C-alpha cells in the first residue's frame, strides 16, 4: 500500500520463498526511492512532481519496490 495526499494505491505482495526477513523493509524502500528518482520526484526540486504523481505512476513505483530483493 502506498499512501499520498491524493489517495492510496494497493497491490498484492509478490510471492517469494522467505529465507530471512532481515532487510525486507530496507529493500522495499530502496526500490521505492529508486523508482521515485526515475520520475524525478526526489529532493526539493522534485517536490512538485512528487505531490502530483498520478495513480498510474504510483502503481509503477509500488510495483518496482514490491519486486525489490
Strand order of the largest sheet: 1-2
- Percent helix among the residues? 40-55%
Q: Unreliable stretches, pLDDT < 50, 5 or more residues?
A: none
SSE arrangement, N to C: EEHHH
Biggest β-sheet: count, sense, barrel? 2 strands, antiparallel
Question: For the terminal residues, how far apart are their CA atoms?
Answer: 17 Å
- Number of helical regions: 3
Instruction: Report the sheet-strand fraction.
Output: 5-15%
Structural class: mainly alpha
What spatial form do the alpha-carbon principal axes imply? globular
Summed over residues and divided by their number, the pLDDT gives a mean of 90
**Rg (CA only):** 13 Å
How many strands? Answer: 2
Descriptive notes:
52% of the residues lie in helices and 9% in strands. It has a domain at 22-69. The chain has helices at 24-38, 43-51, 55-66, and strands at 2-4, 7-9. α1 (24-38) packs across α3. The chain is mainly alpha-helical. It has a two-stranded antiparallel sheet with strand order 1-2.
Q: Quick summary of this structure?
A:
This protein is mainly alpha-helical. Helix content is 52%, strand content 9%.
Give the topology.
Elements: E1 2-4, E2 7-9, H1 24-38, H2 43-51, H3 55-66
Antiparallel strand pairs: 1-2
Helix pairs in contact: 1-3
What are the salient characteristics of this protein?
3 helices, globular, 69 residues, 9% strand, single chain, 52% helix, mainly alpha
Amino acid at each position: 500500500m502506498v499512501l499520498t495526499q491524493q489517495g492510496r494505491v494497493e497491490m498484492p505482495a509478490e510471492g517469494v520463498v522467505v529465507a530471512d526477513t532481515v532487510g525486507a523493509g530496507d529493500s522495499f524502500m530502496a526500490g521505492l526511492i529508486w523508482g521515485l528518482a526515475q520520475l524525478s520526484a526526489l529532493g526539493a526540486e522534485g517536490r512538485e512532481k512528487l505531490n502530483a504523481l498520478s495513480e498510474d505512476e504510483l502503481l509503477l513505483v509500488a510495483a518496482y519496490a514490491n519486486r525489490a530483493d
